[in-house]
C-alpha cells in the first residue's frame, strides 16, 4: 500500500468499526487501517455528538433530540449492513481521496446475495441521511434519492414537516450588509442610479483592481444592479452566507440585517412565475470562500421554509430542475457554464424565471469573468466590477470589508417583509 491513496483507485477492504451512519474504519489487505467518511451525504449526529448538530440542515425538523435518535438509528443501520463485511472502497473523480481532517472520502459498495449495493445511495434512499450539497459527481443522484425519500415519508423524513416551519427573520429591510462586495457596473461604463436599488453609504470607498474597472469616484457606489428586461440582477456580495451567523462562530449577531427578505423579494420581483429558489452548485462553488452552494446557506433555507419555499441545489442545470424554480442563484463559478447550460438558463428566463448573480471581491479575475459571462449570455449588460468596496464607518464587526448600508431605492418593492 502506498503512503497515500490515489483518487482514481479502487480497493477491497474490511469494515472493522462503525462510528456512525456516515463514518467507518476499514482495514486494507496489508493491515493498514483508515477512517472513511462516507462521501456525498450526512447523517444526524448521534447522542454523543448532539451538540454539533445544526437543525437548520434538516428541512422541516427542529428537534435536536429526535435528530439524535435518528443518528443512533443510522448508526445501527450501518452496523447491520457493513460491520465485519468486505466492501469495495472507491473515490469521486472530482474530489481528492482525503479530506481536510485526514479521513478518506469514499464510496462503499457491498454484495447482498449476488447484487451490488451502493451504500451511499442506500443510506439516503432509506431516509437515514440527507444529500450533502457538494460538487461531487453523484450529487444530483443522491439529492434525487433524498427527494424521493422525503416524498414517501421514509425514515426520519416521516417526522418532518417543512410546511409547519414558523416564519423567521421576515421583517422589513432597514439595513443590509454585504461581505467583501464588488460594485456593480454596466458593460459600457457606470451603472445608472435608477438601476441600483442598493448603494453603499457615502463613507464607502472603492479599491479598483483592474485598469478596465469602472471608478465611481465621488459618485454613489452601486452594490446591487437590476435588469428587469433580462430578469437578471447582480449582487456584489454573498448576502446569505452562513459564515456570518453568530451560531457558526461569527462574533456579531447579524440576524437583524435584511439579507434574507431582500434576496427573496429580488428573486420574486424579477420573476414572472412561482416556484422554489434554485442554486447552481456544479461549477466549483462548493469549497471556495468566494462562492455559495446550498450547504453554505442552511439558515437561508430555514427562512425560505417559513415562507413555504424550498432551497434546492443541483449540479447539472437540466430543464426539469429549472422548471421547478422561480429564481436561480449563481455564485461566482470557479469554472464556466457550458453553452448547453446557458441555453437552458435562457429558456428558464424566457419562461419567467429570474437569475440573481452573486459576486465577491474575494473571487479571482477568471471566476468573476465566468459570472459576467452568465449575465452576458442572458442578454444583460450588468457586470460585477473588478474592485473591492470598503467602509470604515459603516460595517459589521469593525471590518471595513463587511460594509453596511441603508441607502435604498424604496420606490421598488424589495424592502418589505416577503410574507406581507
Give structural notes.
The chain is an alpha+beta fold and 420 residues long. The chain has 2 domains: 11-164, OB fold (Dihydrolipoamide Acetyltransferase, E2P); 176-408, no CATH class. It is built from 8 helices and 23 strands. It has helices at residues 64-82, 119-125, 139-151, 259-270, 298-306, 319-323, 339-350, 365-377, and strands at residues 11-20, 23-27, 33-38, 41-42, 86-90, 104-112, 115-118, 130-131, 176-177, 184-186, 198-199, 205-208, 222-227, 232-235, 276-280, 311-314, 325-331, 354-358, 382-384, 387-390, 395-396, 399-405, 407-408. Helix 2 (119-125) packs parallel to helix 3. The model has no long low-confidence stretch (mean pLDDT 96).
Amino acid at each position: 500500500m502506498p503512503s497515500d491513496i490515489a483518487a482514481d483507485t479502487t480497493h477491497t477492504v474490511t469494515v472493522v468499526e462503525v462510528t456512525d451512519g456516515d463514518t467507518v474504519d476499514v482495514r486494507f489487505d496489508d493491515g493498514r487501517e483508515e477512517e472513511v467518511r462516507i462521501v456525498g451525504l450526512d447523517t444526524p449526529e448521534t447522542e454523543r455528538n448532539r451538540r454539533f448538530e445544526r437543525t437548520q440542515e434538516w428541512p422541516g425538523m427542529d428537534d435536536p433530540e429526535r435528530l439524535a435518535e435518528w443518528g443512533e438509528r443510522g448508526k445501527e443501520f450501518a452496523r447491520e449492513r457493513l460491520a465485519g463485511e468486505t466492501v469495495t472502497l472507491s473515490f469521486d473523480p472530482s474530489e481528492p481521496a482525503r479530506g481536510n481532517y485526514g479521513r478518506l472520502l469514499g464510496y462503499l459498495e457491498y454484495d447482498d446475495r449476488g447484487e451490488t449495493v451502493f451504500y451511499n445511495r442506500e443510506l439516503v434512499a432509506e431516509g437515514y441521511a440527507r444529500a450533502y450539497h457538494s460538487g461531487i459527481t453523484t450529487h444530483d443522484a443522491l439529492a434525487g434519492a433524498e427527494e424521493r425519500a422525503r416524498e414517501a415519508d421514509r425514515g426520519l423524513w416521516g417526522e418532518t414537516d417543512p410546511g409547519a416551519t414558523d416564519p423567521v427573520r421576515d421583517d422589513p429591510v432597514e439595513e443590509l450588509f454585504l461581505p467583501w462586495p464588488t460594485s456593480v457596473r454596466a458593460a459600457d461604463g457606470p451603472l445608472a442610479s435608477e438601476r441600483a436599488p442598493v448603494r453603499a453609504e457615502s463613507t464607502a470607498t472603492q479599491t479598483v483592481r483592474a485598469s478596465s474597472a469602472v471608478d465611481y469616484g465621488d459618485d454613489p457606489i452601486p452594490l446591487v444592479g437590476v435588469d428587469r428586461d433580462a430578469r437578471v440582477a447582480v449582487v456584489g456580495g454573498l448576502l446569505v452566507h452562513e459564515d456570518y451567523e453568530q451560531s457558526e462562530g461569527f462574533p456579531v449577531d447579524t440576524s437583524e440585517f435584511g439579507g434574507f427578505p431582500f434576496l427573496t423579494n429580488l428573486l420574486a420581483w424579477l420573476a414572472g412565475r412561482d416556484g422554489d429558489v434554485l442554486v447552481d452548485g456544479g461549477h466549483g462553488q462548493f469549497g471556495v470562500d468566494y462562492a455559495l452552494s446550498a450547504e453554505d446557506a442552511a439558515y437561508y433555507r430555514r427562512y425560505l421554509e417559513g415562507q413555504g419555499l424550498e432551497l434546492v441545489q443541483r449540479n447539472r442545470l437540466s430543464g426539469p430542475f429549472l422548471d421547478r424554480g422561480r429564481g436561480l442563484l449563481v455564485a461566482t463559478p470557479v469554472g464556466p457554464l457550458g453553452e448547453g447550460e446557458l441555453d437552458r438558463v435562457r429558456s428558464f428566463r424566457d419562461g419567467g424565471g429570474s437569475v440573481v448573480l452573486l459576486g465577491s471581491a474575494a473571487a479571482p479575475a477568471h471566476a468573476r469573468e465566468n459570472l459576467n459571462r452568465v449575465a452576458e449570455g442572458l442578454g444583460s449588460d450588468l457586470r460585477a466590477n473588478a474592485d473591492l468596496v470598503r467602509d470604515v464607518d459603516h460595517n459589521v464587526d469593525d471590518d471595513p470589508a463587511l460594509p453596511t448600508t441603508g441607502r435604498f431605492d424604496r420606490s421598488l418593492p424589495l424592502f418589505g417583509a416577503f410574507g406581507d
